[in-house]
Write a structure and sequence with these properties.
The protein is mostly helical. Helix content is about 50%, strand content about 0%. The chain has a domain at about 55-138. Helix 5 (about 100-105) runs antiparallel to helix 7 (about 120-130). The longest helix has 17 residues, at about 20-35. The radius of gyration is 22 Å and the shape is elongated.
Length: about 140
């Protein structure tokens, strides 16, 4: 019966398509991102999704994102100042550095950088960075 009925000319508001368009754009973006496996950021964030950091201040959200991708003033300052890469373990990535093992143990166990940001609460990571005095250097 439905095969013999005429096509309706019902108009739909554009807002009905927003979800579908957003979903399609996300799928295309993810497919493009999946082709960039050699990119360092891909190893940190293989799945594109929004991290809900709205409960944090803007500064804390920036610190957390910089730690996540490994681009901090501490780890990149030598490039900007055209100096040699520092050898000290305390100025690289404090999240993995053996220099901070004792303090880090109070806040979280070190699993891997990828697991760290998926399993440990942002507040714990930020509290650790504040305790070791590096939060304002990020």
């Amino acid at each position: 019966m439905a095969l013999h009925s005429s096509i309706s000319a019902v108009k739909y508001p554009p807002s009905d398509l927003y979800h579908d368009v957003r979903s399609l754009c996300y799928k295309l973006w993810q497919a493009d991102w999946d082709q960039r496996t050699g990119n360092k950021l891909y190893s940190v964030k293989p799945h594109l999704r929004y991290y809900h950091l709205s409960s944090l201040s803007r500064r804390d959200a920036v610190v957390l994102q910089r730690l996540r991708i490994g681009h901090t003033r501490l780890s990149r300052l030598y490039l900007l100042s055209r100096e040699d890469q520092p050898l000290c373990c305390s100025c690289g990535c404090a999240l993995e550095c053996p220099f901070y093992t004792t303090v880090r143990g109070k806040y979280f166990p070190v699993l891997s950088m990828e697991e760290l940001f998926h399993t440990i609460k942002a507040r714990n990571i930020l509290a650790f960075m504040r305790e070791i005095g590096l939060c304002h250097h990020i």
